[in-house]
Amino acid sequence: MSMDRLLEGIAAKQNPTVAGLDPKLAYIPEYILKESFEKYGETLEGAADALLVYNKGLIDALCDIVPAVKPQAAYYEMYGWQGVKALAETIAYARAKGMYVITDGKRNDIGATMQAYASAHLGVTEVCGKNLSAFDADALTVNGYLGSDGIEPLLSVCAKGDKGIFVLVKTSNPSSGELQDRQLATGETVYQLMGGNCETWGEKLPGKFGYSGVGAVVGATYPAQLDELRKTLPHTFFLVPGYGAQGGGADDVAPAFDDNGLGAVVNSSRGILCAWQKEKCDGGEYAAAARREAIRMRDEIVARIGEIKLPN
Ligand SMILES: O=c1ccn([C@@H]2O[C@H](COP(=O)(O)O)[C@@H](O)[C@H]2O)c(=O)[nH]1
Fold first, then answer.
1. For labelling, which of 99, 162, 182, 184 has a CA lying 20 to 30 Å from the CA of 13?
2. What's 2-304's CATH class?
3. 283 exposed, middle or buried (CB, 10 Å; 0-12, 13-18, 19+)?
């Protein structure tokens, strides 16, 4: 099961973190921009080339210590098809380097359309009788608020192709409570209901370490909810954004983990991407600075949760 591969990577590297690949031109060192714009002009193609070169440098610097990357689709889509091509090439490059790739697309739609999203991001697309992979990530973030028929197509694609999904449950943004904290007539909140759905959907994708192929997105900015959900969703692995730039720290994410130091993978995007600017070092050092920040983040979290052990 796909989530098992993520857990194995986390345990092997003793690192429960994922590097967010949300590149912006403002984060990319001048020498990379110059070369890409010389090659392709100051165009979308030039920008997309710069993103890819920048990402490859980061992946090379991180792949032996960080188990996973999370490219956020929006930062590629803003450069049109050229950016989307850079996304596909980033996914392929990271996977070739042994990293687990979570595409952050937050996709959802009616069942028929969701089938197309599932094929695009995790499965295969049939062309003239041949099954071709399009983006081929290991996992995709999805929005469950259209209900089960928007999730079911993903479950079959995940089962067939050894892939996983992360469903938005309690997001990290300041206004997430406007809807997600609303109390239903049953007494439970919307995010608790969605968390329960993850447990139910996950029954179709059981994993060998107790966590299913259906994970949940729960923000580091809500540590009390992380704690509560870890206790009530024993089979649901968490993707935890909100560490670093959004203010979350090791103490906030610690409740997301179980007694084996498993249960969650913590994302940092800007914290890692902009480390070289924060350190005020030369652009040529951007990948080394990202690695230093990734090590600092890993060590801070592991010091709080202890050794990560895969259950027998
Ligand atoms: O609840 C959520 C869900 C997704 N995200 C995404 O995670 C990263 C966070 O980036 P930082 O720079 O580390 O703040 C970004 O891609 C978001 O779209 C989230 O923040 N919260």
1. 162
2. alpha beta
3. middle
Q: Tokens at residue 207, please?
A: 């994993």
Residues with a CB atom less than 6 Å from ligand 1: 20, 22, 72, 104, 171-172, 217, 219, 241-242, 244-246, 267-271
Domain ranges of the chain: 2-304
Would you place residue 1 in the very low, low, confident or very high pLDDT band (cuts 50, 70, 90)? low
Check: CB of residue 121 under 8 Å from CB of residue 135. Answer: yes
Q: Is the pLDDT of residue 27 over 80?
A: yes
Residues sharing a CB contact under 8 Å with residue 148, sequence separation 6 or more, in sequence order: 197, 201
Residue 164, C-beta contacts closer than 8 angstroms, at least 6 positions apart: 1, 2, 3, 6, 138, 139, 158, 205, 213, 214, 215
208 flagged as catalytic: no
Which of these is catalytic: 106, 130, 160, 204?
106
Q: How large is the average pLDDT for residues 280-293?
A: 97
Q: Ligand 1 center to residue 41 CA distance, Å? A: 31
Contact 2, 213 (CB under 8 A): yes
Rg over alpha carbons for the chain, rounded to the nearest Å, is 19
Residue found by looking up tokens 């010389």 in the block: 38
Q: What is the mean pLDDT of residues 202-218?
A: 97
Q: State in Å: Cα 6 to ligand 1 middle.
A: 19
Ligand 1 pocket test: which of 18, 143, 168, 246 has the largest number of ligand atoms within 8 Å of its C-beta? 246
Neighbours of 91 (CB within 10 A): 26
Whole-number Å distance between alpha carbons of 29 and 41: 17
How many angstroms separate the alpha carbon of residue 171 from the centre of ligand 1? 9
